[in-house]
Amino acid sequence: MKFEIFDLGLTNFRQSWDFQKSMLLRVKQKELSSALILCRHLPVITLGRSGKKENILAGDSQLKKLNIKTYEVERGGDVTYHGPGQLCIYPVIDLANFKKDINWYLRSLEALLLDVLSDFGIKAQTQSGLTGIWVKQKKIASIGIAIKNWITFHGASLNLKNDDLANFSLIRPCGMDIIMTSMEGILNQEVRFDKVKRVLTRRWHEASSFAGTGRRN
Amino acid sequence: MKQVVLPELGEGIEGANITFWYFKVGDSVKEGEDLVELATDKATFNLPSPCSGTLKQILLNEGEAVKVGEVLAVIEEESSP
């Protein structure tokens, strides 16, 4: 069975959402063993299943003016913002081939992100009791997933650029008072998407084992 | 009658919240079809129907918490042809 990486580039959220669902079906039907979807989004706000509308701080007219749509999605977690300065990472994998354990998968995603950041010289960490990746007290990557028939979709978003961090002020990210940061914000130099994608796919293959070779200890 | 039980979801996860029932009592369901969506802190999880038949009872409603091992619903199994 095949494992494939799909790089959708800059997409609107709806397109990538539909694409994820089509991959979910292909993995369920065993046409693919797993898929890794990478993309960037035009500015969008998504509300997870634990999402509270009051965590969207901006009013409808402000969002309309900024051309930012809001979608209620089937992932876990509260509200988040996506913009072109982030890399979104949506693994569609059958946990039955690995471990039927939601926490194991969340921790594995975190480990993958920590490895990638470490390759760029960024010392990041998780926070006890929370999901996501922080550099000191600022959040650099967020995670929210959905699982159907033990097949995963949705996933993680990693902030590369400072450009659209300001738009996080339109919401209370994850329903918490969180300050966001980005790889460029930490490194104070340009971070290119193609380089991050290259490192991520390498780490995906060799370390996280999601491509199918067994888990690294 | 077949009981629909919340399976183990992972180490340290004691339960989840019910976010959505795909069916109502009296509906017929097929084995493997999404029956109910549950949510933990950062994940949602769809529990498929363990058999084909008629959904007889929903024991916990949307918004309620369910523990691992707890019964969520009862399905009357389709009699074999």
Describe the structure.
The complex is a heterodimer of chains A (217) and B (81). With 217 residues, chain A is α+β, with helices and mostly antiparallel strands. Chain A has one domain: Bira Bifunctional Protein, Domain 2 (BirA Bifunctional Protein, domain 2, 2-Layer Sandwich), CATH 3.30.930.10. Chain A has five helices and nine strands. The longest helix of chain A has 18 residues. Chain B is mostly beta strands. Chain B has a single domain, classed as OB fold (Dihydrolipoamide Acetyltransferase, E2P), CATH 2.40.50.100. Chain B is 0% helix and 51% strand. Chain B contains no helices and eight strands. Chain B has a four-stranded antiparallel sheet with strand order 1-8-6-3, with no helix packed on it. Chain B starts with a strand and ends with a strand. The relative contact order of chain B is 0.36. The chains are: A alpha+beta (217), B mainly beta (81).
Summarize the model shown.
The complex is a heterodimer of chains A (217) and B (81). Chain A contains five helices and nine strands, in the order E-H-E-E-H-E-E-E-H-E-E-E-H-H.
Topology:
The complex is a heterodimer of chains A (217) and B (81).
Chain A: E1 2-11, H1 13-28, E2 32-41, E3 44-47, H2 60-65, E4 69-72, E5 79-82, E6 86-93, H3 102-119, E7 133-135, E8 138-148, E9 151-159, H4 183-187, H5 193-208
Parallel strand pairs in A: 1-2, 3-4
Antiparallel strand pairs in A: 2-6, 3-5, 6-9, 7-8, 8-9
Helix pairs in contact in A: 3-5
Chain B: E1 2-5, E2 15-21, E3 28-29, E4 34-39, E5 43-48, E6 53-58, E7 65-67, E8 71-77
Antiparallel strand pairs in B: 1-8, 2-4, 2-7, 3-6, 4-5, 6-8
